[in-house]
Amino acid sequence: MSEILARTLGGKPVVGIDGTDFGTLSTVTMDPDSGALRDLVVDARGQTSAADVPRGGDDGRLQIPVSRVEAVNDQIVVQAAE
Predict the structure, then answer these.
(1) Whole-prediction pTM value?
(2) Which stretches make up the PRC-barrel domain (predicted)?
(3) If one looks up domain 6-78 in CATH, what number appears?
(4) Strand 21-30 vs strand 37-44: parallel, antiparallel, or unpaired?
(5) In which region does residue 78 sit, left (phi positive, over 0), alpha (psi from -120 to 50) or beta (all else)?
(6) Secondary structure E strands in the chain
(7) Per-residue DSSP letter, 59
(8) CA nearest neighbour of 78 among 19, 15, 33, 29
């Protein structure tokens, strides 16, 4: 994947590879020790089943591991949970 500036990601739609609309990207979490990116924090839109969402946050936001990202263009495309 080519380099992408973090400031261009905020507010992008997050969708599953099957077209499921998860919401919009709020922020990205990282490991403070290693600097490795951890999760996309997504402001959820509509109803998504537990099978569709890799992890749910306690505050109603979705936390999707960065390892699930498939593509980033006009939207962020992610794999559903295994």
Answers:
(1) 0.77
(2) 1-80
(3) 2.30.30.240
(4) antiparallel
(5) beta
(6) 13-16, 21-30, 37-44, 62-65, 69-72, 76-78
(7) T
(8) 15
